[in-house]
Amino acid sequence: GAGVSQSPSNKVTEKGKDVELRCDPISGHTALYWYRQSLGQGLEFLIYFQGNSAPDKSGLPSDRFSAERTGGSVSTLTIQRTQQEDSAVYLCASSLAGGTTPGDEQFFGPGTRLTVL
Amino acid sequence: AQTVTQSQPEMSVQEAETVTLSCTYDTSESDYYLFWYKQPPSRQMILVIRQEAYKQQNATENRFSVNFQKAAKSFSLKISDSQLGDAAMYFCAYRSVYGQNFVFGPGTRLSVLP
Description:
Chain A is an all-beta fold and 117 residues long. Helices cover 0% and strands 49% of the residues of chain A.
Protein backbone atom coordinates (compact mmCIF):
# COMPACT_ATOMS: atom_id res chain seq x y z
CA GLY A 1 0.00 0.00 0.00
CA ALA A 2 0.94 3.65 -0.21
CA GLY A 3 1.01 4.38 3.51
CA VAL A 4 1.86 2.87 6.87
CA SER A 5 -0.71 0.31 7.95
CA GLN A 6 -1.38 -1.08 11.40
CA SER A 7 -3.45 -3.98 12.60
CA PRO A 8 -5.72 -4.48 14.33
CA SER A 9 -7.30 -1.04 14.39
CA ASN A 10 -8.91 -1.84 17.73
CA LYS A 11 -8.08 -4.47 20.31
CA VAL A 12 -9.93 -5.25 23.50
CA THR A 13 -8.27 -7.68 25.86
CA GLU A 14 -8.49 -8.85 29.44
CA LYS A 15 -5.94 -7.94 32.05
CA GLY A 16 -3.11 -10.46 32.11
CA LYS A 17 -3.39 -11.51 28.46
CA ASP A 18 -0.65 -10.99 25.88
CA VAL A 19 -1.26 -8.87 22.76
CA GLU A 20 0.57 -8.39 19.49
CA LEU A 21 0.31 -5.23 17.44
CA ARG A 22 1.50 -5.16 13.87
CA CYS A 23 2.96 -2.39 11.73
CA ASP A 24 3.61 -2.46 7.98
CA PRO A 25 5.84 0.49 7.06
CA ILE A 26 6.08 2.17 3.69
CA SER A 27 8.09 0.00 1.32
CA GLY A 28 11.74 1.05 1.27
CA HIS A 29 11.64 2.93 4.56
CA THR A 30 14.55 1.81 6.72
CA ALA A 31 13.51 3.49 9.96
CA LEU A 32 10.50 2.46 12.03
CA TYR A 33 9.19 3.98 15.27
CA TRP A 34 6.63 2.95 17.85
CA TYR A 35 4.83 5.49 20.03
CA ARG A 36 2.14 5.31 22.69
CA GLN A 37 -0.55 7.95 22.98
CA SER A 38 -2.67 7.88 26.09
CA LEU A 39 -6.08 9.57 26.06
CA GLY A 40 -5.68 13.30 25.50
CA GLN A 41 -1.91 13.11 25.77
CA GLY A 42 1.05 13.64 23.47
CA LEU A 43 3.13 10.90 21.96
CA GLU A 44 5.43 8.84 24.13
CA PHE A 45 8.39 7.32 22.26
CA LEU A 46 8.76 3.58 22.77
CA ILE A 47 11.34 2.15 20.37
CA TYR A 48 13.15 2.88 17.13
CA PHE A 49 14.39 0.43 14.48
CA GLN A 50 17.02 1.09 11.86
CA GLY A 51 16.66 -1.86 9.54
CA ASN A 52 16.17 -4.89 11.78
CA SER A 53 18.14 -3.60 14.71
CA ALA A 54 16.83 -1.45 17.53
CA PRO A 55 19.54 1.01 18.59
CA ASP A 56 17.14 2.84 20.88
CA LYS A 57 14.87 0.89 23.22
CA SER A 58 14.96 3.53 25.89
CA GLY A 59 11.26 4.27 25.79
CA LEU A 60 9.95 0.80 26.51
CA PRO A 61 8.11 1.27 29.83
CA SER A 62 8.77 -2.19 31.27
CA ASP A 63 10.11 -5.63 30.42
CA ARG A 64 6.56 -6.65 29.51
CA PHE A 65 7.03 -4.66 26.30
CA SER A 66 9.11 -5.99 23.42
CA ALA A 67 9.31 -5.39 19.70
CA GLU A 68 10.92 -6.99 16.72
CA ARG A 69 11.31 -6.23 13.07
CA THR A 70 12.01 -8.84 10.45
CA GLY A 71 13.28 -8.45 6.91
CA GLY A 72 13.63 -4.74 7.41
CA SER A 73 9.90 -4.42 7.00
CA VAL A 74 7.06 -5.56 9.25
CA SER A 75 7.33 -4.88 12.97
CA THR A 76 5.46 -6.42 15.88
CA LEU A 77 5.03 -4.81 19.28
CA THR A 78 4.22 -7.37 21.97
CA ILE A 79 2.82 -6.54 25.38
CA GLN A 80 2.83 -9.42 27.84
CA ARG A 81 0.55 -9.71 30.86
CA THR A 82 -1.34 -6.57 29.91
CA GLN A 83 -2.37 -4.11 32.61
CA GLN A 84 -5.13 -1.51 32.55
CA GLU A 85 -2.56 1.28 32.34
CA ASP A 86 -1.43 -0.15 28.98
CA SER A 87 -4.71 1.08 27.46
CA ALA A 88 -3.77 3.64 24.82
CA VAL A 89 -3.41 4.19 21.10
CA TYR A 90 -0.20 2.67 19.76
CA LEU A 91 1.14 4.51 16.74
CA CYS A 92 3.74 3.31 14.30
CA ALA A 93 5.70 5.56 11.95
CA SER A 94 8.33 5.02 9.30
CA SER A 95 10.83 7.26 7.57
CA LEU A 96 13.12 6.82 4.64
CA ALA A 97 16.53 7.00 6.32
CA GLY A 98 16.00 7.53 10.03
CA GLY A 99 19.03 8.42 12.07
CA THR A 100 21.23 9.23 9.09
CA THR A 101 18.86 11.97 8.00
CA PRO A 102 17.23 13.39 11.13
CA GLY A 103 15.12 15.87 9.19
CA ASP A 104 13.30 13.07 7.42
CA GLU A 105 9.53 13.20 7.64
CA GLN A 106 7.90 10.46 9.66
CA PHE A 107 4.84 8.92 8.07
CA PHE A 108 2.38 7.64 10.63
CA GLY A 109 -0.08 4.79 10.57
CA PRO A 110 -3.64 5.14 11.86
CA GLY A 111 -2.80 3.47 15.14
CA THR A 112 -4.15 0.56 17.16
CA ARG A 113 -6.47 1.44 20.02
CA LEU A 114 -5.79 -1.02 22.84
CA THR A 115 -8.29 -1.38 25.67
CA VAL A 116 -7.39 -3.56 28.64
CA LEU A 117 -10.40 -4.51 30.77
CA ALA B 1 16.99 15.34 28.09
CA GLN B 2 15.05 17.55 25.77
CA THR B 3 11.54 18.68 26.60
CA VAL B 4 8.81 20.29 24.53
CA THR B 5 6.08 22.46 26.03
CA GLN B 6 2.83 23.61 24.48
CA SER B 7 1.17 25.96 26.92
CA GLN B 8 -2.20 26.17 25.17
CA PRO B 9 -4.22 22.97 25.65
CA GLU B 10 -7.04 24.40 23.52
CA MET B 11 -7.43 27.21 21.02
CA SER B 12 -10.22 28.37 18.78
CA VAL B 13 -10.27 30.56 15.70
CA GLN B 14 -12.95 31.94 13.43
CA GLU B 15 -12.93 30.61 9.89
CA ALA B 16 -10.72 32.77 7.59
CA GLU B 17 -8.93 34.32 10.57
CA THR B 18 -5.34 33.79 11.71
CA VAL B 19 -4.24 31.84 14.77
CA THR B 20 -0.86 31.23 16.37
CA LEU B 21 0.00 28.10 18.36
CA SER B 22 2.87 28.30 20.83
CA CYS B 23 5.71 25.86 21.40
CA THR B 24 8.82 26.15 23.53
CA TYR B 25 11.53 23.59 24.03
CA ASP B 26 14.55 23.00 26.16
CA THR B 27 17.86 21.73 24.79
CA SER B 28 21.58 22.25 25.16
CA GLU B 29 22.25 21.29 21.57
CA SER B 30 22.97 23.74 18.79
CA ASP B 31 21.63 21.81 15.83
CA TYR B 32 18.32 20.00 15.71
CA TYR B 33 15.04 19.82 13.85
CA LEU B 34 11.63 21.09 14.88
CA PHE B 35 8.34 19.87 13.49
CA TRP B 36 4.65 20.61 13.67
CA TYR B 37 2.34 17.64 13.19
CA LYS B 38 -1.43 17.70 12.84
CA GLN B 39 -3.68 14.92 14.14
CA PRO B 40 -7.31 15.14 12.98
CA PRO B 41 -10.05 12.98 14.56
CA SER B 42 -9.08 10.17 12.17
CA ARG B 43 -5.88 9.81 14.31
CA GLN B 44 -3.67 10.03 11.21
CA MET B 45 -0.67 12.21 12.08
CA ILE B 46 0.34 14.48 9.23
CA LEU B 47 3.47 16.61 8.95
CA VAL B 48 2.58 20.29 8.65
CA ILE B 49 5.97 21.97 8.59
CA ARG B 50 9.58 21.44 9.65
CA GLN B 51 12.51 23.72 10.49
CA GLU B 52 16.21 23.01 10.83
CA ALA B 53 17.77 24.96 13.67
CA TYR B 54 20.76 26.28 11.76
CA LYS B 55 18.52 27.87 9.13
CA GLN B 56 17.55 31.34 10.21
CA GLN B 57 14.81 31.77 7.66
CA ASN B 58 11.40 30.77 8.95
CA ALA B 59 9.80 27.85 7.13
CA THR B 60 6.52 28.36 5.28
CA GLU B 61 4.12 25.92 3.65
CA ASN B 62 1.19 27.64 1.98
CA ARG B 63 -1.05 28.96 4.80
CA PHE B 64 1.27 27.62 7.49
CA SER B 65 4.35 29.44 8.71
CA VAL B 66 6.56 29.35 11.77
CA ASN B 67 8.21 31.96 13.93
CA PHE B 68 11.47 30.32 15.01
CA GLN B 69 13.30 32.17 17.75
CA LYS B 70 16.38 30.05 18.49
CA ALA B 71 17.71 32.10 21.37
CA ALA B 72 14.33 32.03 23.07
CA LYS B 73 13.84 28.35 22.15
CA SER B 74 10.46 29.16 20.71
CA PHE B 75 8.80 27.65 17.65
CA SER B 76 5.27 28.95 17.09
CA LEU B 77 2.97 27.96 14.24
CA LYS B 78 0.83 30.53 12.44
CA ILE B 79 -2.16 29.38 10.45
CA SER B 80 -3.54 32.00 8.09
CA ASP B 81 -7.00 32.01 6.49
CA SER B 82 -8.11 29.20 8.81
CA GLN B 83 -10.33 26.54 7.29
CA LEU B 84 -12.73 24.07 8.89
CA GLY B 85 -10.36 21.26 7.88
CA ASP B 86 -7.64 22.75 10.05
CA ALA B 87 -9.48 21.63 13.17
CA ALA B 88 -7.25 19.02 14.83
CA MET B 89 -4.70 18.39 17.56
CA TYR B 90 -1.40 20.05 16.76
CA PHE B 91 1.83 18.63 18.14
CA CYS B 92 5.19 20.33 18.25
CA ALA B 93 8.15 17.94 18.09
CA TYR B 94 11.91 18.11 18.53
CA ARG B 95 14.58 15.87 17.08
CA SER B 96 18.28 16.07 17.79
CA VAL B 97 20.65 15.50 14.90
CA TYR B 98 22.39 12.99 17.19
CA GLY B 99 19.44 11.15 18.67
CA GLN B 100 17.08 8.70 17.15
CA ASN B 101 13.75 9.57 18.66
CA PHE B 102 11.38 12.47 18.48
CA VAL B 103 10.21 14.34 21.57
CA PHE B 104 6.63 15.52 21.28
CA GLY B 105 4.79 18.20 23.19
CA PRO B 106 1.40 17.52 24.83
CA GLY B 107 -0.54 19.06 21.95
CA THR B 108 -2.95 21.92 21.35
CA ARG B 109 -6.51 21.21 20.29
CA LEU B 110 -7.58 23.72 17.64
CA SER B 111 -11.24 24.36 16.90
CA VAL B 112 -12.29 26.33 13.84
CA LEU B 113 -15.61 28.13 14.17
CA PRO B 114 -17.78 28.70 11.09
